[in-house]
Amino acid sequence: MTVLPSAAPEAAPAVCPDADVARAVVLSSEQILNLLPHRYPFALVDRVVEYVPGKRAVALKNVTFNEPQFQGHFPGRPLMPGVLIVEAMAQVGGLIVTQMPDLPKGLFVFAGIDGVRFRRPVVPGDQLLITCELLSLKRKRFGKVRATATVDGERVCSGELMFSLVD
Questions:
Q1: Would 59 be classed as within a structural domain?
Q2: 88 vs 102, residue with greater confidence
Q3: Which of the residues 38, 47, 55, 73 is marked catalytic?
Q4: What per-residue confidence (pLDDT) applies to 53?
Q5: Among 76, 85, 163, which residue's Cα sits nearest to residue 119?
Q6: In the beta sheet, which residues pair with residue 107?
Q7: How many CA atoms within 13 Å lie on the side-chain side of 78?
Q8: Inside any domain, residue 15
Q9: How confident is the model at residue 22 (pLDDT cuts 50, 70, 90)?
Q10: 73 included as an active-site residue
């Protein structure tokens, strides 16, 4: 994996003419907020560390003890809910789609989740490295990504996520 240098927060991501070459821009949390509609407490992507336009994105989610879900999930044994791991993976997939120039503007939402498996708990202090690859895009409205989340090189969750454009 290539770790790319950080860009200034106000800089827009540059368009890379060669879709097989990763962008030389890391998307900061501020830039991500400009691309995705999610806000606290559902903004779950902290930084993009690798990006191949229209194909692949790799991002980080820092799991911290002060996140609201840990008040009740579970007292004395904080575990990141699987649904939030899947949501973080979907947001990384959404970053691939938001940067595609020929797609209509709108809100992409879950249309399906296939083959998602959880392999080990995610706890405060972990850093999720989330990799998404675009598998298909149909009629500029329906898409599918393969998503994998790892902690310290160990896979914690993977599966395929489908989305559709809401008018």
A1: yes
A2: 88
A3: 73
A4: 83
A5: 85
A6: 166
A7: 13
A8: no
A9: low
A10: yes
CATH code, 92: 3.10.129.10
| Residue of 83 and 97 predicted with greater confidence | 83
Number of H helices, E strands in the chain: 2, 6
Q: Which residues contact 56 (CB under 8 A, 6 or more apart)?
A: 50, 96, 131, 132, 133, 134
Q: Residue 123 is encoded by which pair of tokens?
A: 């706890």
**Residue 99 structural domain:** 29-166
pLDDT at residue 10 in the model: 39
**pLDDT at site 106:** 85
What 8-state DSSP symbol labels residue 67? Answer: S
Structural domain includes residue 142: yes
- How far apart CA 104 and CA 101 sit, in angstroms, is 8
| Number of separate domains in the chain | 1
| 144: amino acid identity, one letter | K
* Residues 115, 86: Cα–Cα separation, whole Å: 12
Domain contains 77: yes
- Tokens 């490295």 locate to 129
The helix/strand/coil state of 88 is helix
